[in-house]
Amino acid sequence: QVQVVESGGGLVQPGESLKLSCKGYEFAFSFYEMSWYRQAPGKERELVAIIRPIPGGTDYADSVKGRFTISRDNFSQMLYLQMNSLRSEDTAVYFCHAQRGPVEYWGQGTQVTVSS
User: Fold this and answer.
1) 3-class secondary structure, 102
2) Counting CB atoms within 10 angstroms of each CB, which of 10, 38, 110, 114 has the fewest?
3) Strands 78-83 vs 110-114: parallel, antiparallel or unpaired
4) What's the CA gap between 87 and 107, in Å, rounded?
5) For the chain, first and last CA: distance in Å?
6) Residues 113, 54: Cα–Cα separation, whole Å
């Protein structure tokens, strides 16, 4: 079954780090543009970071530049988001997204809560 599945969310304190993972199943992962989105309560879903197919250029939302790092392992069909110096405003459900032309897949999301 074609799907992407996120993991790694949780509750952390401000300033701490967290690493999200996303596994792709049953599609040619290496050819897809992969990204992380997030949606906070009462807000629209927003793009956090994107990583393109080989050679793997990246872009980040201004709010996370210098704190978050997106990476991928095409052999394992894995996508990652390393989140450092987390802030309360990073609290949201984080979604993995795969896209190649008109074809796209969304994960179910993983909750990240940053609170003291």
Assistant:
1) coil
2) 10
3) unpaired
4) 23
5) 39
6) 32
Q: How far apart are CA 10 and CA 91, in angstroms?
A: 10
Q: How many CB atoms lie within 10 A of CB 88?
A: 11
Average the pLDDT over each of 22-26, 51-55, 96-100, 104-108 and give the range with the smallest value. Answer: 51-55
Report how far residue 74's alpha carbon sits from residue 63's, in angstroms, rounded to the nearest whole number. 27
Tell me, what amino acid is at 20? L
Three-state secondary-structure class, residue 90: helix
> Which pair of structure tokens corresponds to residue 90?
């990073």
Confidence of residue 113 (pLDDT cuts 50, 70, 90): very high
pLDDT higher than 90, residue 12:
yes
Query: In this prediction, what percent of the chain has a pLDDT beyond 70?
Result: 100
